[in-house]
Each structure stands twice: as C-alpha cells, then as structure tokens.
C-alpha cells in the first residue's frame, strides 16, 4: 500500500512539473500581442502624421506660388489708380492741342493750359504729392538745393529768392528737392567805408598808448 501511495505522489509531482511552464508562456504571448497591437497603433499614427505633414507642405508650396503671383500682379498694376487719375489730364491736353490745330486763339490756349495745370496739381494732391514751399523761406538743405547765389540789398541772407525747379514731398517724405537761388546780403559802399574806418581805429588802438601809425 505504501508503494501505491508513493507512486501516486510521484505521478502528481510529475503532472505539476509538466503544467507549470504553461502559465508563463501564455503571459508572454499575451504581452507580445499587446506590444504588436501598440506597435501597429503607433505605426498608423506615424503614417497619419506623415500624410498630414505632406499635405501641409503641399499647401505651403501652393501658398508661396499664389503669393508670388499676387505680388507680381500687384507690382504690375500698382500704378493703376494713379494712371486713372492722370487720364483726365491727358484728355484735356489732347483737347487743347486739337483746339489749337483748328485755329484756336492763343488766349484760349493759355487758359486751357492753366486749367490743365490746376487739374494736374489737384491730381497730385490726391495721391499725397505736395509742392515744397521755397520762395521767401530760409534755405533748408533738407528740402532745397541751391543752384546759385543772388546778392540782395534788403539785408536778408540765406533766403530762397527764386525757384528754378519746384520740389515735391510724397506723404511728407522728400520726392525731389526744390532748386532755388539763395540770397546773399550785398555789402554797400558806405558800409565798406565805415567798416574800413572801424578797422583803422582798431589797428590804431592796437599799436599802444600814444603811438599812431604813420
């Protein structure tokens, strides 16, 4: 009987030894399955992000092309508004020329040109162009360009007395300077005599007490 119990114990122990590796193997397979599923999920996510990146890159390239095209068109047609403002001036000039050709009088031509000039000046003001004040103002090297000096007898010096070519500002910024003639106070002959007398007296005083220049 003892032999029978011993054999049963051995059989039970043998069964336990054979069944014990089953649990770790199942757990490992489960872990591998989870890792594979996670890897697949991450791979899908990476592919989705890559597709999104490619789409964004394509959209950005299209945006750059569109912006370049719009910028090119803007440069080509930037002066469209100014040209539309100037067309009435051209129309008036053409009308004036046609009037002269059919025997218009000089006075009428002069009046027509004067009207055209005022129209043109109004057009310039609309686009922010204003003339620089010059004549009668003190010479300003920032907006004036001196082309000559003119002697004057009124005692004023460094004043723009004549405008050779009008200057303009565009929205307050210098577009081109005004060419002007600048005054230079003329020294009169009697002033020269007084000045010479004062210089002589000064020289006499500088010779020392009681000593006069021969």
Automatic annotation (TrEMBL):
Single Gene Ontology BP annotation: protein folding
Localization, UniProt: Cytoplasm
Species: Methylomirabilis oxygeniifera
Any single Pfam family the record assigns to this protein: GrpE
GO molecular function, one term: adenyl-nucleotide exchange factor activity
Alphabetically ordered keywords of this record: Chaperone, Coiled coil, Cytoplasm, Stress response
Protein name: Protein GrpE
Lineage, opening ranks: Bacteria, Candidatus Methylomirabilota, Candidatus Methylomirabilia, Candidatus Methylomirabilales, Candidatus Methylomirabilaceae
Described purpose of this protein according to its UniProt entry: Participates actively in the response to hyperosmotic and heat shock by preventing the aggregation of stress-denatured proteins, in association with DnaK and GrpE. It is the nucleotide exchange factor for DnaK and may function as a thermosensor. Unfolded proteins bind initially to DnaJ; upon interaction with the DnaJ-bound protein, DnaK hydrolyzes its bound ATP, resulting in the formation of a stable complex. GrpE releases ADP from DnaK; ATP binding to DnaK triggers the release of the substrate protein, thus completing the reaction cycle.
């Amino acid at each position: 009987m003892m032999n029978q119990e011993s054999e049963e114990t051995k059989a039970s122990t043998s069964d336990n030894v054979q069944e014990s590796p089953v649990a770790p193997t199942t757990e490992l397979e489960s872990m591998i399955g989870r890792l594979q599923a996670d890897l697949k999920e991450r791979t899908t996510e990476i592919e989705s992000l890559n597709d999104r990146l490619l789409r964004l890159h394509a959209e950005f390239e299209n945006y750059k092309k569109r912006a370049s095209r719009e910028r090119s068109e803007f440069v080509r047609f930037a002066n469209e508004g100014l040209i539309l403002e100037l067309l009435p001036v051209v129309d008036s000039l053409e009308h004036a020329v046609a009037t002269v050709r059919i025997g218009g009088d000089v006075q009428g031509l002069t009046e027509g040109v004067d009207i055209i000039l005022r129209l043109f000046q109004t057009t310039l003001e609309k686009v922010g162009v204003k003339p620089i004040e010059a004549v009668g103002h003190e010479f300003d090297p920032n907006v004036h360009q001196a082309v000559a000096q003119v002697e004057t007898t009124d005692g004023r010096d460094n004043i723009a007395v004549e405008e050779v070519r009008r200057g303009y500002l565009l929205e307050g910024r210098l577009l081109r300077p005004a060419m002007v003639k600048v005054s230079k106070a003329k020294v009169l002959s009697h002033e020269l005599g007084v000045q010479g007398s004062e210089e002589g007296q000064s020289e006499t005083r500088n010779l020392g007490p009681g000593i006069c220049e021969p």
